[in-house]
Specification:
Oligomer: single chain
Strand content: 15-25%
Distance between the termini: 14 Å
Order of helices and strands: EHEHEEHHEEEHEHEH
Structural class: alpha/beta
Helix content: 25-40%
Bound molecules: 6-phosphogluconic acid
Shape: globular
Strand order of the largest sheet: 1-9-8-5-2-3
Largest sheet: 6 strands, parallel
Number of strands: 9
Amino acid sequence: MRRVFDDADGVARYAAETLRGMVESASAAGRRVTVALSGGSTPRRLYELLASEYAGQIDWTALEVFFGDERAVPSDHPDSNFRMASEALLDRVPLDRERLHRMPADSGDPVAAAAAYESVLRERVASGPDGFPALDLVWLGIGDDGHTASLFPGTEALEERRACVVANEVPQLGTWRMTLTFPALCAARRVQFLVTGASKARIVEAIERARSSGDLERYPATRVVPREGEVEWLLDRAAAGKARGG
Ligand code: 6PG
C-alpha cells in the first residue's frame, strides 16, 4: 500500500494517528501495543509530533517500545538512534521505562547482545503463526542504497532466516550495527515506511521499478513483506515525485 501526502508533516501525522488508533483499541481491550522505532533522521518529525500534539491522546503506559536497529555507539552518542528517539519523544512522555528496550549495539560482545535482545523481544511479544514475535507496529526508513533498519545490501544479515536480531557487520560503513532481521520484520502486523524529501525520489523510483519487475533482491527494503500483516509506504510528494503517480 502506497500513500502519498503533500508534505513530511502529512506523513508524520498519518503515522502518529496510526499509533494513536492502535493504542486506543488495545487499551480498551486491556492489551499492550508493541512498536519498533526507526532510526535515522526522518522519524524525528513523527516523534516530536507524538511528544507534543499527541502526548495527551495516547496511553503511553500501554506501549512496549523496541528499536529496529542501532549503531555501535553509546546511548548518548550523537549517532545513537536511542538518543534521537529519547530527545524527540521517549524522555518527553510517561512511558513505563521497564517497557523501553534499547538495543545495546555498543556492547563489547555484539553477538551475545543481539541474542539477549532477541530473548527480551520473544519474551515480551507474542509470536505469530510462523513462530516469530509479531510486533504490532514497525516504523522503518530507507537509505539511498535501499537498505532498511541495518539490513544493508551485500551484508550477512540479509540471509538470516532464524534469528530475529543480529549483529551485522556493514563493510560499507566500516562498523557493526544491531538490527531486526527479515523474519522479525515480516512477522509484524503492520509496517510503515516513512520516506520524505526530494533526496529519496531516486531510490523510491528504483524500488518501485524493481518491485514491479519482481526483483526483490537488489534493494533490501523491498523484502519487507509481512506474511500476515500489511506494509504501507508513507511518502511525501517530494519523495514520490518521480515514481508512478507521484
Ligand atoms: C539508521 C536507520 C536507517 C534509516 C535510513 C534512512 O539507523 O540509520 O535505521 O535504516 O532509516 O538510513 O535514514 P534517514 O531517515 O536519515 O534518511
